[in-house]
Structures are given as structure tokens and as C-alpha cells.
Amino acid sequence: MDVGLKGRRALVCAASKGLGLACATSLAREGVAVTITGRTLATLESAAAAILKQTGAQVTIAPGDIATPEGRAAALAACPEPDILVNNAGGPPPGDFRDWQREDWIKALDANMLAPIELIKAVVDGMIGRRFGRIVNITSSAVKSPIPTLGLSNGARSGLTGFLGGLARQVAPNNVTINNLLPGSFLTDRLRSTNAAEARENGRTPEEEMAESTRAIPAGRFGDPSEFGEACVFLCAASSGYIVGQNLLLDGGAFRASFG
């Protein structure tokens, strides 16, 4: 199926691995000219090589921390007029809110709320002028079902979601859509490292811990990052212009609700 994206340009943030890389790979497979960002040059180069091997597409890299003004400037210099923007950044660490200082909150907000807004501000008027734009924000299932130990992430990502809910309706008449992808548990390096730590704490092997973790997921497994990448393509497709301001939850059914 042709999703109508050949020749479009995409800026995919924090895409050197994990879900960002999956989105970049799926977009490249559809003929999109992809630029990826990441903090580590060597990891970015490896990611670009992996995308080339899987899709045959050359990828532009933009090293830098997307949570900083310098990182965003580098990304926009490499891809100044994207038709597609995929916002993504690593989540804040877990903890007890009693231990967090103002600086911790500001850092979380900078990475997971303010940086995406700054990037949208930089590119959205160009999208409006071209009458095509797809903005996809990778947030978290915690937006719908907060995780108590991830309060910094819960707060910052929920703030972003609330802001974008209004903005999405403002830009929609120009064929510019803003939607969010909410991942649950996907089989990424981050999940594997978290699983290994939990296994040590619980006196189990990593394999036993993985099996225990999947019991709470009706699908009976963790998500494959490639599934996430294809969901991103779906939201970016030329035929998806009527999907506006939505929060697409990909969690294997772990969030139990009939509505919402």
C-alpha cells in the first residue's frame, strides 16, 4: 500500500535506537528522506547504517541533545523544512517526588514538554504554507495510566499532551496534523536493562522476570519496535489528514478501559 509519503522529508528525534529508530526505519522504507538526531555520533552512524541496510535509504544524521537549544539548532540545520516531525526524547528517571528539586522538574519539562513545543514552533508555519504536515509525538502510556514512580515523566508528558490538544485543532485546517503515540512495554534496550535490574532485585533470572512482566499484558508479550514504527507511518500517511489531536495507545491491552 502506497501511503503517499515518497519524497517527503522527516526529522526524527532521538532516533539512534529504540522506538525513534523504529519510526525512522519505517518512514525510510516508505521513501521518506529521513534525518535522525541523537546525542552520540557513533551510535547515530550505526543507526544510519542499519537503516540503509534494511531499506536501501541514505539517512542524514544530526548529532546533539534535542533537549538543548544547540541540539535543536543542529537538527533544524540538517533538516530545515521537514514535512514530518517525530518528537522523541528519553524519559526522566524514576523516584520519589519528595526527593526532587526544582532543577529536576525543569530538566524533565525541558526534555519532554518544552523541546517538542520549540521544534513544532520552528517547523509548523512551513508545513502550513506547504499545506502538508504530520507531527507525531512519542509520549508514554503513563499519560493515560500514570506510573507512580515516574512522576517527572507523568507531569511533563501530560503537560505536552494538554497543550497539543489545543494546537492540533488550530493547525488542522491546513492539512497539518498533530497526534501522539503512547507506548507501553516494547522490547528495547531500555526495557531489557530495566528488566535485568528488576530481576536482580526480585531474585529471578532475566528470563523469569520477562515472563512475569508479560503476565500483565493481555497480548501476552512485549511490543516489537517495528510495530511502533508502522503505527508512526500510519499517522503520517497522506490519507490520515482526518486524524487530529489523538493519543494512540500501543500497549497490548495493558490499560484496561472501555473508553478514553
UniProtKB/TrEMBL annotation:
Stretches with biased composition (Basic and acidic residues): 198-207
InterPro entries with a match to the protein in the record: NAD(P)-bd_dom_sf, SDR, SDR_fam
Stored SUPFAM superfamilies: NAD(P)-binding Rossmann-fold domains
Pfam families reported in the protein's UniProt record: adh_short_C2
Residue ranges of the region described as Disordered: 195-214
Top-level taxon of origin: Bacteria
Residues passing through the membrane, by range: none
Family recorded in the similarity comment: Belongs to the short-chain dehydrogenases/reductases (SDR) family.
Protein name: Dehydrogenase
Organism: Labrys miyagiensis
